[in-house]
Structures are given as structure tokens and as C-alpha cells.
Amino acid sequence: MLVLPSNPNGKNLSSAVVALCFLIVFPLVIWILLRLFDFNGLYGQDAYEYLRYANALVDWLENGNPPGDYFWPVNYPFFGAIGGYLTGNTLACLQLISVFSLTATAFLVYLILGDFTGKDKNILFLYCFCCCVMAPFLLRSALLVMSDSMAILGVVCFYYGHFRYAETKQAKWLLLLSAAAGAAVMTRYALAIFLVLPALHLLVLVFKNRHWYLLFPAIVLAALFLIPHGWIRYEEPFAFLGHNYLGEWSWQHWFQRVFSRQDGQVAYRLPNVLYAFSYVYHPGFFLLGAGVLPFVKWSDWKPTIQRITLCSVLLYTFFIAGIGFQNQRFLLPLLPLGLILFYPAFLRSWQWLQTKIRLQRKWVFMGLVSLQLVLFVYSFNTVWLMNRIEKTIATSLQTYPTDNLYCFYLYPALESYQVPQKLINLWKEPITAYKIQSYVLFHPSRFNHQWEGHTLMENWEYLRKNYYLEELESFPDGWVLYQIKNQK
After folding, report:
1. Percent of the chain clearing pLDDT 90 (strictly above)
2. What letters, b where the CB count within 10 A reaches 16 and e where it falls short, cover 103-112?
3. pLDDT given for residue 68 in this prediction
4. Residue 298: in which H helix or E strand, if any?
5. Beta strands in 66-214 (DSSP E)
6. pLDDT tens-digit profile of 264-314?
7. Residue 484 belongs to what H/E stretch?
8. Gap between the Cα atoms of 421 and 410, Å rounded
9. Coil, helix or strand for 342?
């Protein structure tokens, strides 16, 4: 095991101070900044869908109106709805869950890695802050109304319990990891892949430690997080197993970069398998990854539990590579576990750097944080601009009369901001009759390639060829509001 010498610059931060920073100070600072910059965490389509269903659950709790079925895991909107029911602000609760989950994940990584640092815990604190809290893609995800951060917290909490139970043989850790497993899977189904190998190892340890009598309470704890799913999706509790991700999964996708799907044709820069490992080398995930890789040794993962973690990471990586498209969100859970696996190599690279360039630790980490802030701003810019565009368009539409509004992509945003028009989605089904004097909100050039031949583009082309459209207003990024005047 690689350790560093005692901290030459003074005392280590106490455990209480570290916990205070990760669990209170950091999330509070992020929350204040979000309020100052007026960013509500809504972007694209998924975030609005989480908010919509959370609001439906609040209405269910308050008035008894059934919220309807929900295809995605229900835990994130469910706990957001509980917060919204108690506070009256569902949106803020959903965003706060995501922010807190990020910093709590970094704290758990700190606890897991505590055995690797010798007497100098300060460098571990800086490592977790710089590479987890400030990781551009993780931080961006935590600012959104998305389930990713909460799901990642569940997985890392499970591994924390796994590490502790294997080390101490104390029953409390088995119960903790069982609850964490249920929370993780019922927030993102695919994360069950991370649990398979550790679960087999845990079964061996349970019987070896004669803790078999704890299996029932452990299963009960895990099942507690299944209650919202069973309560809401009691008619089709296993419908998620029929998701096209599973049905279309193929190892042949590992080597592809062009995919034709029901939601359009997409071409990526890298084959799936190279993309799936980008959490190791892409600076948006792990800024130090490329520099740390030369210092990796197989002996870093000699302990059985470390190798189980490594195999679980690889299993999930190759599973993601087999899906017929690429999505950075799928790779986010890999980063915290990757930070655990690469920490010995990071210490080794740090020692090497100190022998070559004698720089004060604070300047090195201040430089890293500054660089990551630049990368974060660059990666977050698209999200920020789209959030502003959605608000601008919704505000403008409040000034137009109530009538039909044909649209796509911005449909969930406009519905969430409660524009007065009746929204009709151009994506769902062919439309051959459009109401005169109604409105169309569209981006004329954005969807041509991806949605070529799809109902969406067929509807747009039919509308454009058969009706006179008057441009009423143009918005940033190419969005245009039209009014349908007459039929040609």
C-alpha cells in the first residue's frame, strides 16, 4: 500500500471539518450561486419530465389524484415530491437533492480512500474536492433536475458499505449497503450491473462471518426503496425490463460510431468502446486521468475487494458500450469508482512531480480548480443558453392569444412554464390538417439530418409546402415562431 509522509505544512483537517465541508459548506455555496445566477436546473426534456411527474405526485399526496404511470425509475421524483409536499417548492427540492448528492458522494469517496493516505489526509481532501466535486461533467449534472447524482450516491454508498463490511465484519455495514443498493437501482435501473459481483462476494462473506440471519432484514431494507415503484407502477412493475436498451444491446456496437434508431440517425466521433472509456482520459470527467495512467500498477488492485470493484467498473463500461447510442450521463457513475481505483497511481504521480518540480501544494491544486472551472463553464454554456432560451420563449408566448401551438423538443419546457396556448407535438403522429391562425414553433435547420424521414420532418415539410407561414418572432439559436395564415 502506497502512503505519503506526514503533512509537512501543518495539521490534518479533522474528520468533523471534512464532513462539514462536504455535507454543508460545499452544497450551501453551490446552492447560493445557483440562486444568484437564477438557474433553476431545467434543461432539455428529461428535467422537465422529472419535474412534471414530481408535481403530479405532490397533487396525489395533497388531493388524491392518481399521478399516472411512469416509465422511468420513480425514486428521484418521489423524494422530490416528498420535499415539495413539505416545503411547497418541488423544483427547489429536486435540484437540492442533486447538489447534495454530489458533495455527499465526494465525502464517501474520501471515507473509502482513508486507508490509503497514511497521516496526510489533506491531500485526499483536495483530491476528492478537485476530482469529484469540481469534475466538470459531474458538477454540471448535479446542477440539473436529473436523477444522475442521486443514483451515483446510492452506488458509492453501496461500495462504502461493501468496503467497510469486508474490513470490519460489522453487521451495520451490511444493512447500510442493502439500503443503498435498493436506492441506487430504483433511481437508475442500469446501475444494478455495479452490484452483481459485489453481491456474490458479500454472500460469501455473510456465510463466512455467520451473518446469514441478517439476510432477511437486509432484503427488507433494500425492499423499502421498492415501495414507491410498486405503489405507483403496480400494474406493470416489470415493464422496464422491456426497454429497447436491452432488446437492442449488442457487442457489435462496441466498434460502431454511426447508428440508425427510431429517434433518428446519429454519427459520433469515436466507436462506442473508446467513448465508453472516456471517463478515464477525458478532462471533462477526470482532468488528471491521462497524467495518472502511466503510474498505474496492477498491484494497486491486489486486495480482493479492489479487484471486484475494478471488474464491476469494466462490466458496466462494456455494457454501456453495447448500447446503440452515446450519452455522457451513462458514464457519470464510473467516475467516483474510477477515482477510488486510481488514487494510488495519483499518489505515485504526485510524489514523482514533487521530485521534478518543487511546487507548493496549494498552487498546484488552485491551478487544477481554476482549469476545471474553465472546463465547467465551457461544458455548461450549452445548458445555460438553452435554459435561458426556454425561459425567453415561454415569456414571449404569454403575450400571444390562446390557440394551437405546434412544436417539438421545447414541448416539455413550454408545458412546465404554462404557456397559454394548446400544445400539439409534431413528433408523435402525422398531421394533415392545421388550424388557420394557430402558431408553429420550430428550428428550421436543427433537425434535418437526425430526423430525416421521421414523422417530425414529414409534418414540417407538409406544413411548409401546403400552408403560408408568417414569421412572427425569431429567438436565439435559430428558433422561430410562425403563424399559419392560409392554405396554399
Report:
1. 68
2. bbbbbbbbbb
3. 83
4. none
5. none
6. 677 889 999 999 999 999 999 999 999 999 999 998 888 899 999 999 999
7. strand 480-487
8. 13
9. helix
Given strand 422-425, what is the order of strands in its sheet? 422-425, 404-407, 439-442, 480-487, 467-474
Q: Phi and psi of 486, rounded to 5°?
A: -150, 165
Q: Where are the domains of the chain?
A: 15-358, 390-487
Distance, C-alpha 360 to centroid of its chain: 34
Is a pLDDT exceeding 60 seen at residue 4? no
Pairwise CA distance, residues 40 & 34, whole Å? 7
* Residue with the three cell numbers 465525502: 107
Q: What is the dihedral of CA 282, 126, 306, 281, to 10 degrees?
A: 10
Which residue type, as a one-letter code, is found at position 336?
A: P
Task: Name the strand (E) or helix (H) holding 281.
Answer: helix 278-281
C-alpha cell of residue 15 = 474528520
pLDDT over 70 percentage in the chain: 93
- Please provide the DSSP assignment of 364-423 as one string: HHHHHHHHHHHHHHHHHHHHHHHHHHHHHHHHHHTTSPS-EEEESSSHHHHHHTT-SSEE
Cell 433537425 belongs to: 447
3-state helix, strand and coil shares in percent for the chain, rounded to the nearest 5: 65, 5, 30
**In the numeric block, which cell numbers belong to residue 101?**
448528492
Task: Work out the mean pLDDT of the chain and round it to a whole number.
Answer: 90
Q: Residues 196-224: what's their mean pLDDT?
A: 91
Among 42, 127, 46, residue whose Cα is nearest residue 92: 42
Q: Which of 158, 155, 177, 71 is nearest to 332 (CA)?
A: 155
Q: Which three cell numbers stand for residue 394?
A: 415561454
Q: Which of 20-24, 69-73, 233-237, 439-443 has the lowest mean pLDDT?
A: 233-237
Residues 6+ apart with CB under 8 A from 434: 404, 406, 463, 467, 484
d(CA 403, CA 383): 29
Are the beta carbons of 349 and 292 closer than 8 angstroms? yes
- In this prediction the pTM is 0.91
Q: How far apart are the first and last CA of the chain?
A: 77
Query: Residue 102: which pLDDT band, with cuts at 50, 70 and 90?
Result: very high
